Amino acid sequence: MSQKAMKTVLRKIFLLKRQYNNLPLFQFMRDDSIDAAKRLSFFPCMAHFIMSFGDLNKYVLRSEPAADKFQEKVNLHSYEDDHHWPWYLEDFQKLGYDLPTRPTDLMRFLWGEETHKNRVLMYQLTAMIAQASGAERIAIIEAIEETGNVLFTTMLDLAKTLEGRYGVELRYCGVHHHALESGHAVASEHEEIAAIDLDEASTQRCLAWADQVFDLFEDWTNELLAYARRTTPTASAPDRRTSYGAELLS
User: Fold this and answer.
1) DSSP assignments along 171-222, one per residue
2) Longest CA pairwise span in the chain (Å)
3) What whole-number distance in Å separates Cα of residue 113 and Cα of residue 248?
4) Within 13 Å, how many C-alpha atoms sit on residue 230's CB side?
5) What is the dihedral angle through the alpha carbons of 39, 44, 49, 54, rounded to the nearest 10 degrees?
6) CB–CB of 6/204 below 8 Å?
7) What DSSP state is assigned to residue 97?
8) Cis peptide bond N-terminal to 103, omega within 30
9) Cα 157 to Cα 13: distance, rounded to the nearest angstrom
10) Distant-in-sequence contacts of 99-102, Cβ < 8 A, 24+ apart
11) How far is CA 13 from the centre of its chain?
């Protein structure tokens, strides 16, 4: 494997992203024949993963003091991504999902079978990152970021529609979050990452982990889509929306 092998890894990630962009969840989200609230009705199903993502950055990706310049870059990134979950909670409330629920029912939903891919995704990412060097963690982060870019880009039009309908700003689903996530992916940063040298063994690990990241996120999107198809939110005011996990909690 030639030097600057991270460029090969990035090419693989961008190829996987193009395939990921066409998954059924994103086709569903882009289907204008379906009401926007229905197309975003998977939102509560993401809760376990989204709320755990800050911890992934704080306690798994981050390692201080950094062992090398690559881990320093990982640490910097982790500080950018460890505090987005409050926006998710804001949108959760604004979209009408903050309904009275018994703590035991909520825990049954979060740790139940219908949301298990959310948990598996976080556990597998944690295991993957624990094995990775600083440079390899950068590759894993890039794969995760590109899956997020697809989701947040696809959500923009839905957020705009629902912001107008409900008279709110959706900071997690909308422009606020998307602008920050897009800022991670500027061309100059990709050029810097592509210039990282990897040996043969590290390159093969990164290529395999890129495949694994996208496979895990594909399973996650399928779980979100299955949840959305089972859910029947109304198109009226948020405080009259159908509760998440209604069939589970009844």
Assistant:
1) TTTSHHHHHHHHHTT-HHHHHHHHT----HHHHHHHHHHHHHHHHHHHHHHH
2) 59
3) 10
4) 18
5) 110
6) no
7) -
8) no
9) 25
10) 99/241, 99/243, 99/244, 101/243, 101/249
11) 15
Structure-token match 């993502």, residue found? 53
Cβ proximity of 121 and 216 under 8 Å:
yes
Structure tokens at 226: 């299955």
Name the residue type at position 206. C
Encoded amino acid at 155, one letter: M
pLDDT digit string (tens) for the chain, length 250 residues = 445 789 999 999 999 999 999 999 999 999 999 999 999 999 999 999 999 999 999 999 999 999 999 999 999 999 998 999 999 999 999 999 988 889 999 999 999 999 999 999 999 999 999 999 999 999 999 999 999 999 999 999 999 999 999 999 999 999 988 887 665 544 557 888 999 999 999 999 999 999 999 999 999 999 999 999 998 764 444 554 555 554 443 3
Count how many Cα atoms sit within 13 Å of the Cα of residue 72 in the half-sphere of its side chain. Answer: 3
- The encoded tokens of residue 108 equal 């049954």
